[in-house]
Amino acid sequence: MKPYRVALIGTGEIATAHVNAVNALKDRLELVAVCDIDTSRAEAFRARYGLPAAYGDHATLLREARPDFVLVCTPPGFHAPASIAAMEAGAWVMCEKPLCASLAELDKIQETEARTGCYTACMFQMRSGSAGNHARKLIQDGTLGRPLVALANTLWFRDRAYYAVPWRGKWETEVGGTTMAHGIHTVDFLLHLLGDWEEVRAIAATQFHAIEVDDLLMAHVRFANGARASIMNSAVSPRQETKIRIDCEHATLEADYLYSYTRENWRLTPSALVASDTAHAAKLHSAWDSLGEDIGSTHTAQIATLIKNRDEGTRPNTSGDEARRSIDFLTALYKSAFTGQAITRGSIRPGDPFYTALNGGQGAVRDIR
To answer: Where is the GFO/IDH/MocA-like oxidoreductase domain (predicted)?
Structure first.
C-alpha cells in the first residue's frame, strides 16, 4: 500500500517522539513537511530529519503538502485551531495532549469531524499498551471481581527553567497546569480502566512555582460502577513516579512507571481470601499471564492504531465520546477546585463559564481561597 503522507505542525520537544514514531512505521507513513511559526526552527527541523519541505504557517503547509495525516505538536492553546484546519484540508489528526482548551473547543472539533468525515484523536498513549488493555479487560469482564478502590498518581517535578518558557504556566497558552500537562495521561488512563465517572471533588494549588495554573491538584472520584478513586497530580515531587492501582474484590492490579510502561511494570496481587484458595489464585494468575504480545505504551503504538483506523474507516478510540469523557472530567476537576463544589458528569454546558475556560475566567489558581 502507498504510504500515507504525514505533516507535522510544531517543532517543540515532543515533536521528536512523533518523528521517531513515523520513522518506526515508515512502511506505512512518509513525513513530507514540517511547520513552525518560527521559520528558523522549522528549517532546522527539516534539515535535521531530511524532510522535503518546511513552512512558517500551517495554512500553506496544508495547501501545498496535501497530507493524509497531521501531527499537532504546538503549544496547547493552538491545538484546536490547528486540528480543525487540518480536518478541513482532508487530513486525519493526531493531536498532542490536551486535545483542546475547553468543552466549547471540543464541540467545534466534533462539528468539524461530522462535516468533513475526518477525525482528530488525542495522543493518550497509555491506552495503547497491551498490559493496560489486558488489565482493563480483566476489570471489566469481572475476572477480578467488583472494582472498589483506585489510585492514580502523577508525581513529577518541573524546575523553574521549565516554566520560564513563555507559553507555559498561563491559562491562555498552556490552558491548564500540571493536571492538563502531565496528569492528563494518568487521569485519562484511569477513566479508560474504570469507565464512566459520576462525581468529583477537587482542590488545586500553586505550591512552589510562580505561575497562574496549578502545580498541584488532588481529587476524589465516584464512578458509575461504585468504585472510589483518589487522584494526585504534582509538578513539585523530587522523586518522580506515575502509579495506577485498582483494588478489586479478588485482587489488586497496579503499575509503577514514569512516562511509559510494559508488562514488567505491572503486578497482580490476589486478596488474602483468594490466596488461601489455591485453585482460585492460580486461575487469577493464569488470567493475568495470558497477556500475549507485550506492546509498550508508546507514540508508535498509538499512531499504528490510527493507521489501522484510517485503513478501515473507523473512529479512533481517543476521539469522539471517549475524548469528551476525559475533557468533561478534567473540566470538572478545575470547576470543583475553583468553586468548592462537587461536580457531576455532563453538568458543564453552554452558558457555564467553565464551558469556555477551564478556570471559568476566575484568574490564577493561587487566588483560590
So the answer is: 134-254
CATH classification of 130-296 is 3.40.50.300, yes or no? no
Q: Which of 190, 231, 237 is nearest to 209 (CA)?
A: 237
Residue 96 and residue 73 in contact, taking contact as beta carbons nearer than 8 Å: yes
CB 240 within 8 A of CB 156: yes
Could you check whether 4-125+300-315 and 130-296 share the same CATH topology? Answer: no
pLDDT in tens, 252-280: 999 999 999 999 999 999 999 999 999 99
For residue 368, name the pLDDT band (cuts at 50, 70, 90): confident
| Average pLDDT estimate for 151-164 | 97
Asked if 117 and 248 count as a contact pair (C-beta separation under 8 A), the reply is: no
Assign domain 4-125+300-315 to its CATH superfamily. Answer: NAD(P)-binding Rossmann-like Domain (3.40.50.720)
Sheet holding 4-9, edge to edge: 53-55, 29-35, 4-9, 69-72, 92-95, 120-122
